[in-house]
Amino acid sequence: MHYGGINIYMKLLKSKLFAISFFLLIWSLTVICLKYNLELLTYPIVLIGLGYEILTSEKKLKVLSLLTILGALGWCMQSFEAYMGTLIIFGSKPLAPLWLALLWAVFMSSTLRTMPFAFKNIYVSFIFGCYALPGTYFFIAKLGLAEIRSPIWQSLALDAVLSGIVFVITYLLLKFHFQKQGQGQLYV
User: Fold this and answer.
1) Fewer Cβ in 10 A, N or C end of the chain?
2) CA separation for the pair 81, 130 (Å, rounded)
């Protein structure tokens, strides 16, 4: 369906509100699958989310390479926390499950698309990262899908600092590799 030469459906798919809603749907379905011990269903769910993020971007190959790096980085962070025993998601000790790398990629892509201000500078990136994830892990721990070791404040503080570092690395990747002068934004 076209209106004035603009594909309305593609415009809707690229909207920020839809991107946020779609990520929340992917995240919620993942949580529901984990709650009912359907871990294998998380893979197609997060792959659908990842497919959406890549297909609706202007520079698909660059977005795919960035999300691969960010997914691996998030997975390494989660695996470190599982190894240390401070945050264990769905029995992930000693390593985080692989679907979590895909979910990290979808989360970071949604954040890049809908909240580019989070990557305005290194300080904003760190502060935003510190606040972005600890509350989520506290929530899924209340659902019984994660275990946060005592004292809880230390585990959440470690998660906040590590999340902040992931966001700073994302800022640096964007600044120095993926958005060189004249190449524009990854998401338009």
Assistant:
1) N
2) 15
